[in-house]
Each structure stands twice: as structure tokens, then as C-alpha cells.
Amino acid sequence: MRRPIVAGNWKMHGTRADNARLVEELLAGLPDGAAAECLVCPPFVYLQEVGRLVRDTPIQLAAQDVCAEAQGAFTGEVSAAMLKDVGCGFVIVGHSERRWIYHESDQLVARKFAAAQAKSLVPILCVGEQLAEREAGRTEEVVGRQLDVVLELCGVAALRAAVIAYEPVWAIGTGRSATPEQAQVVHAFIRERIGMRDAKVADATRVLYGGSVKAGNAAELFARPDVDGGLIGGASLNAEEFLAILAACGSR
Ligand code: PEP
């Protein structure tokens, strides 16, 4: 049984005051016995403070990125050890904004994945195709390649301590979500691809959907058999929306 995850990627938004208010509202509205694990991913500079606000609560702390190197002369970078030190349990790697705006290659993303796991952080590996790639019928080729580079470097067993997020680039921040059917097709493909190497790992790996998830479409997306929760951008900045998305995973 895969426990769903709902993770809020705050991206480069917020102030200390905004964060405190958002966390307070989330904690006030979080139900006992939520079906899903709840994560927030604040910007680096706020990790420690948000970590303090969510300590001993059901909200877990995640970072938005990590350096592929362990330590050293890498100005502006943040290491996995540092993220662990301030209380992170998870870290996003390969978000499409990193891949496309900052030109991160599949290989760099795979090294970030490995660097995170070396410090016992759970990587949330983002994969997804651009609109032109989908329209050219290349979705599986692109997503398969992004996944395979990580599997080649780290081995399939590494997915036992990782999460995958399928995020079609054309759906991120656009208000145009994939349909539940489109999401299910790619999630099933991802699971099959992992299953070619290890069926048990494939069955246990949580595959989140991300891309314009809102309170209004979360339940039908999460109802698909291979969709194990969501990575939420814009809607995670609004406590009411985010709590409704969390509630769409049901209770246990
Ligand atoms: C994201 O940034 O990971 C994301 C899914 O954004 P949004 O929900 O705003 O589309």
C-alpha cells in the first residue's frame, strides 16, 4: 500500500511573515489521520525557520534543490548535508524550472539524486515532457530517458528511498492540468519502466502528479490507480486550497 504524499513547492515566494501565517493556517486545518503525508518546500533561506515552525507536527520539511557536490568551493550552492542539518527529510531534484531555465542536464539531476541519498534525504525526482515533445508523440521517450539516467547511475533499488513526480512542463503554472487519463497513462508507463528492472520496487514507488493541481481537480487526479498524490506549486501558497488538495487524498 503506497501512502500518498502532497507536497507544496513554494518556489521563490513568501516572506518570513507570509510563511508563519501559512504554516499557522495549515496546522490549524490539518485533520488528524490525513491519508497523505504533507510536505512543504520553502526557499533555502527560510528552511530553518519553517523547520522550527513545523517541528513535532505532521508537516515535513523539504528543499527545492540541492548541490550535486558534497562540499567545497561552489559559491551559492547548498549541500545535502546542510539540508539534513536544518531538518529536511526530502528534496526536489530535476524540477522543470531547474532543467529548462538553468539548463540542468539529466546527468546533473541524477548526480543530485545520488548526493541527496548519500545524506539520507529522500529525493523527489521530477520528470516530464514539454508541450512540443508531447505533440510529437515523444512523451514516453523523454520521461523514460530522464528516469533511466537516474536508474543507471543509482540502480533501481535507490527508488526504495525516493519519490517520483510526473510534471508535464506544459501543465506547470499554466492552469492547464493534464487530464486524469493523461496522467494515469504516464504514471503507469513510469511504473512499468521501473518494473522492467524490479517489479517490487515499481509497486512500492510513489509517483506524484504535478501541474496545475487545485482543490477542484485533485480528487479526480488522485483517484487514478497510479497517481500517489501531488506536487503542488501555486495552490500550495493558499492554505485553504492546499488543505482541500490534501483532503482529496481521503483519510485513514
Ligand atoms: C510545480 O512547480 O511543481 C507545480 C506543479 O506548479 P503548479 O502547481 O503551479 O503548476
Structure characteristics:
single chain; 252 residues; TIM Barrel; 8-stranded parallel β-barrel; 11 helices; 8 strands; 42% helix; 15% strand; binds phosphoenolpyruvate
Report on the architecture of this protein.
- There is one protein chain.
- This protein has helices at 16-29, 47-54, 80-85, 96-101, 106-118, 131-135, 139-154, 180-195, 199-204, 215-222, 239-247, and strands at 5-9, 37-41, 59-63, 90-93, 122-127, 163-166, 206-210, 229-232.
- The protein has an eight-stranded parallel beta barrel, surrounded by six helices.
- 42% of the residues lie in helices and 15% in strands.
- The radius of gyration is 17 Å and the shape is globular.
- Helix 1 (16-29) runs parallel beside helix 2, helix 1 (16-29) packs parallel to helix 11 and helix 10 (215-222) packs parallel to helix 11 (239-247).
- The structure holds phosphoenolpyruvate.
